[in-house]
């Protein structure tokens, strides 16, 4: 399976809050939004994810050097599923472009081949990471609850992530739930929408007194492994939702 998606005026705001508030926030999301139909559990909205994130030897992705700041490459697996997803996300101020191809988990070994088969459905991903000198550096895993809905400007999505863990990737194994905990005692909420913040998410922020924050699971994970990487001055600085939406055009969050 392969999908390509382009979303004009794709926006995203992130929040970070205490883990003890997770049950109430999830109950709110289930009362106000619908399951996406692909999740597990009683409410069909639960995921266990493990993703391999790619980086260059000079940490160009983290440092957002040139085009590396606009695109990210990762391989994601859900739980113990027999397939994995090769993903490229490219963001500009105006749009988000995402390409995703599912292949058998066993195909991970193809990434080590000096000459992958051009007929392989994942060859586009292989070719691009080789050209950009990218290698899988870490595995990031977490538990997610995901809900979706509609708004006057298009579809919306809300996710709540907990149990975040990072694992260095010398072996590149998919080990969901393994590794060193990061952002302990906290959960990460992401809301995605188009054009302008929908009323439902304004209600969410008001109900739980949430403030927007620039926060990246990828960036937090790298720093937790003691790589000598600088932290941005405005990272994790709470901002009123209205101010964040106005200042960042609705993209108040680091690109994960």
Distance between the termini: 23 Å
By helix and strand content, what is the structural category? Answer: alpha+beta
Give the overall shape.
globular
Q: How many helical elements? A: 6
Strand residue percentage = 35-45%
Reading off the top of the CATH hierarchy, the class is best stated as Mainly Beta
Count of β-strands: 12
N to C succession of SSEs: EEHEEHEEEHEEEEHHHE
Question: Average pLDDT, to the nearest integer?
Answer: 89
Total number of domains: 1
Helix fraction bin = 10-25%
Largest sheet: 12 strands, mixed
Low-confidence stretches: none
Description:
- The structure is a single chain.
- The chain is of the alpha+beta class.
- The chain has a single domain, classed as Beta Barrel (Hypothetical Protein Pfu-838710-001).
- It is built from 6 helices and 12 strands.
- Strands 1, 2, 3, 4, 5, 6, 7, 8, 9, 10, 11 and 12 form a 12-stranded mixed β-sheet that branches.
- The longest helix has 11 residues.
- The mean pLDDT is 89.
Sum this structure up briefly.
The chain has about 260 residues and is an alpha+beta fold.
Summarize the SSE layout with pairings.
Blueprint: E1 2-8, E2 10-18, H1 22-32, E3 34-35, E4 46-55, H2 60-63, E5 71-78, E6 83-91, E7 95-104, H3 123-131, E8 135-151, E9 154-168, E10 180-181, E11 186-194, H4 199-208, H5 217-224, H6 241-248, E12 251-252
Parallel strand pairs: 2-12
Antiparallel strand pairs: 1-7, 2-11, 3-8, 4-5, 4-8, 5-6, 6-7, 8-9, 9-10, 9-11
Main features:
Hypothetical Protein Pfu-838710-001, globular, alpha+beta, single chain, 12 strands, 39% strand, 256 residues
């Amino acid at each position: 399976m392969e999908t390509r998606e382009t979303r004009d005026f794709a926006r995203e705001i992130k929040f970070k809050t205490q883990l003890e508030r997770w049950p109430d926030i999830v109950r709110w999301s289930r009362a106000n939004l619908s399951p996406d139909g692909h999740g597990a559990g009683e409410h069909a909205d639960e995921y266990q994810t493990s993703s391999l994130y790619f980086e260059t030897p000079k940490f160009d992705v983290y440092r957002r050097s040139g085009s590396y700041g606009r695109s990210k490459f990762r391989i994601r697996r859900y739980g113990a599923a027999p397939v994995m997803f090769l993903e490229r996300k490219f963001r500009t101020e105006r749009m988000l472009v995402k390409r995703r191809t599912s292949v058998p988990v066993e195909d991970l070994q193809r990434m080590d081949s000096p000459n992958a088969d051009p007929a392989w459905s994942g060859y586009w991903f292989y070719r691009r990471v080789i050209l950009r000198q990218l290698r899988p550096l870490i595995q990031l895993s977490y538990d997610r609850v995901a809900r979706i809905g509609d708004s006057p400007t298009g579809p919306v999505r809300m996710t709540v992530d907990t149990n975040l863990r990072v694992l260095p990737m010398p072996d590149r194994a998919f080990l969901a739930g393994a590794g060193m905990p990061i952002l302990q005692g906290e959960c990460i909420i992401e809301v995605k929408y188009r054009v302008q913040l929908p009323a439902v998410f304004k209600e969410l922020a008001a109900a739980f007194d949430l403030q927007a924050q620039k926060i990246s699971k990828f960036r937090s994970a790298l720093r937790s492994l003691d790589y000598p990487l600088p932290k941005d001055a405005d990272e994790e600085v709470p901002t009123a939702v209205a101010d964040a939406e106005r200042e960042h055009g609705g993209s108040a969050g680091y690109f994960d």
